[in-house]
Amino acid sequence: MQARWKLGSLLAPLAFLALHLGALAPAELAPPVLALPALAQQQEPPKAPQKCLKCHDQGRLPCSEHPSAECEWELDVLYCSEISGCAVCGGVGWVDCKDCEDAVAEKWLVDRRAKVAARKTALKFIDDAMKREVRKGESAHMVLVWEMEEMKVEKRRLSRHELLHLYLKRLETLYADFSARLQVNEKLFAGKPNIYVWYMPQDHDQCGLSLLEQNAKGGVKLLGPTPRYTICGNKQNFRDDDALHRNIVHSTTHLLLSCVAVPGWMGNIKGGWMDEGLAHWFEDRYWGICDNYCYQEQNSNVDFKGGKFRLAVRRMVAEGKAPPVAEVMQQNVDTLTLPMHAVCMSYVDYLINQDGAKFYALSKKLKAKVPSGDALKEIYGMRPLEFEAVWKAFVLATYPTR
User: Fold this and answer.
1) Would you say domain 130-264 falls under CATH 3.40.30?
2) Per-residue pLDDT tens for 26-46?
């Protein structure tokens, strides 16, 4: 009241002057004075939003049934069997914060519970095939069964649960890299790759027969619209995490190539050079070593030049001993020689770095049974002999000599 009176007293002389000048009517003076409290309220600084000290305004908290760090892992996946049976969080890893109201977070939790339940039902076919519940997870673009024991990664021994999440993350990294290099999007993939990794050989055998309709001591793949891969990953077959990871990258590349665009396997219709070449290329890209050969997966002792393909290819080209391109591009996967495997990686290295979209277009031609020479001419504008000349120049200019 005191503030209003003071301001009113200041305005009174002005109102008197305005009345004598005929500018304002007395009734028009009241609204501004009456509106002053509202105006003062608008000019107050906005109040800081209330902070929930318990959840830090996330609207959710880690489930008390699981370590907080493990709850963070669940944010990167759609489903994880390790916590899917939890009665508290419903397999989400998170629960509602009761100390605050957050409609968005509450809806997210409800939706996540429903999706976890749906994915559990969708993946039950694996448990049915194995006649027991197995450890598995699903991410945006991959399904992984991880029935392995604890394992050392770099200098730290990881639990089976953490390894499941680590390998799902690694598979998503490969998927993103594959998509970026070939310039494709998720709508072009016919199916979601399933990778099954077992510690016990008998589980690997059972999985192969039940889910891939075949089995072998080494890795087994089902290629095309329902891409699947099973492998026994114990130390009898893989000396360490790097060796197993490299095998899974190589084999998953085959799955991705077989199910992108037109589903099908080019490796048995004279497209072996691209099928194996691309899988080797990703091995070389991440490790600089290529030591996986699909046609001899039952023989873990296969080796060509210690897996140093770039060095081996340069030497073959420099000495005039590289297999002819025209011959290599007529082979299926199971007829490629070891030197051919090395040059196949190098063909892919040249072509994919020239233009990833063209490489993808070339893959579609090979799946359609277009001869490699004709497809190469149509997409890249080169016949095999022309390609051979520029490829050799590329190798001599860019590959290491030692």
Assistant:
1) yes
2) 333 333 333 334 433 444 455
- Looking at residue 50, its amino acid is Q
Q: DSSP letter string over 144-190? A: EEEE---EEETTEEE-HHHHHHHHHHHHHHHHHHHHHHHT--GGGBS
pLDDT tens track for 82-133: 999 999 999 999 999 998 989 999 999 999 999 999 999 999 999 999 999 9
| 351 closest CA partner among 360, 338, 342, 339 | 360
43: Cβ contacts below 8 Å, ≥ 6 apart: none
- pTM for the full model? 0.85
CA distance 236 to 219: 13
Other beta carbons within 10 angstroms of residue 58's beta carbon come to 14
Q: Which single residue is written with the structure tokens 């799955």?
A: 255
Closest listed residue to residue 85, CA positions, set 30, 42, 136: 136
Listed by start position, the domains of the chain span 60-122, 130-264, 266-402
